[in-house]
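Give me the fold.
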Amino acid sequence: SQSDIIILVEPSGYGNDVWAYDVNSNTMTQKSDSPSNLDADKVLSYYDKESDRGILVEYATNTGLDVYSYDYNLDTWTQMTDRTPSIDFQDGAAYYDYESDRGVFYQRGDGNNYQRVYSYDFNSDTWFEQSEQPSNLVLRYAGFAVFDSDSSKAVLIEKSGDVYHYDHGDSVPEVIITAS
């Protein structure tokens, strides 16, 4: 991050407190509360490096469609345009793609019409449908994703514990670690 700060957002119902952890000084600072309608325990989030914003997306249609950005330097929240109701990221995974300057969101991949990959452009506040993820990639309940800038691919940890190297334009992810 540009400020070496980790932002922690308390779930609604517990106070909506926002804390900033400074990695360099090993200190916590309380910031202003998150919006009361943001259910922070039901979001996928990523840090948009180019815009220096945290992006939080409520992931399931039953919790809300809200998309928020958080500006640490100004300690302000901005509600963006709601995501489309048909997009459901519950039990999915998200990461920031440095090359496209977009957040990339994977649905859970359990074969029940949740195989899509979407991207979100904060600057234009726009969602894009990318592709369908491979049917053998199941992120449900254990999915995790980060962007590997050296290879320009995502590293995805799947439900079984397998680790994949994947470019959402590829048809088959490369298994780099197999769970034993």
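Residues 66 and 82 are 5 Å apart (CA to CA).
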